[in-house]
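User: Please run a holo structure prediction.
Assistant: Happy to. Please share the sequence and the ligand.
User: Here you go; the ligand is 5,6-dihydroxy-NADP.
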Amino acid sequence: MENFTIHNPTVLHFGKDVIRKLGSIVNSYGKKALLVYGKGSIKNNDIYTQVMQQLTAADAEIFEYSGIKSNPVVEDVDAAAALGRQNDVDVIVAVGGGSVIDSAKIISITIPVKHSGWDFYSDKARPQKAVPLIAVLTLAATGTEMNMFSVIQNHHVGRKVGYGHRLMYPAHSFLDPAYTFSVPADYTAYGIADLIAHCLENYFGKGKATLTDRFIFSIISEAVERAPKVLNEPTNYEHRAAIMFAATAALSGLTSFGKGMGDWGVHSIGHVLSLLYDVPHGASLTIVYPAWLRFHKKELNVQINLLGRAVFGTQSADDAIAAFEKFFQNIGCPVRLPQAGIGSEKKEEIIEAMKHNGVQGSHHKFTPQQMEELLELMF
Ligand code: NZQ
Ligand code: ZN
């Protein structure tokens, strides 16, 4: 088992109507709030209205920045940070999925400084302080609501990378499963795939931690069992709550205790696909994971077999991999690049971007030659 430290300062409010506490919590930080959200889904359901009611009741002065795109970009981070800096905001309220909350994390450390938020990702700057961040989650997937990570794209330098710092934990996160009723079937499935991928990245990490492995099997089993149900009944509160809790649990620390930092090779390749072709994050992972598992089948035979047995009741590594692939397909996720509209003529471009982004697992390394072999398995 690898050494580990547990420290997670986020206060998580989970359940029906938890938004009622938002106003008083905003008030405890001050009167000026930067409200950050995406392309408008929160205006098509009732979420924007409910958040505004809370902010108005708190007598907050509100500065809005909207339009954060899925697979977020640094331009929005810098523009929103400028708005927050100009108005000397006391608190940030981010309402949305991973893209909005990840952007808000970097906005929170960019407001106090004069440079671009990208400087944190490119190691040119270290954060000194952060504007407190309150997250209102509307999509179950990334676990960003209770972790210190953020992933942003910069098309000028052709990179999508993650960055983590303890100042980036949200101070409070509000998770009302009913807020995810309106998430369409495709993004519901991508979110489920993402949370499973977070379990797998940690499972294939370095240390031997059997209790953590059992947490991992339980979270994946919960997701596999609930997935068809939630897709069938998207407004069923219990199904949405189970998935939302599973997504938070999958990347809040629980699945990595004693496993080192996890592997994250699959994510690093998935980020390249999102960067180049705007593939939704979860969909990029369902393309890469079956290939990655097949590629590592010999080396990881025992581990894959154990995983398959615990989750699907399969009896071999081959059957376990087939079961994961079938599950991803059944919930409507792509498992090969052409299913995401990416043809074999793109191979060279993908390899170049993989090299440029330095894709790599932290535990299971691959050479440039192996990158090409892995890519072949995605067609
Ligand atoms: O733009 P809006 O209008 O908000 O619409 C979004 C977007 O189109 C929509 N949506 C969100 N909540 C909704 C809804 N539609 C209807 N009803 C609702 N309640 O869903 C679309 C996708 O949203 P997005 O935030 O992009 O999805 P997700 O939560 O999957 O976040 C993906 C981003 O998170 C990063 C990914 O790389 C990607 O950039 N990740 C962040 C991690 C972290 N911070 O720990 C870890 C992950 O592995 C991941 O890398
Ligand atoms: Zn992910």
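The first strand starts at residue 11 and ends at 14.
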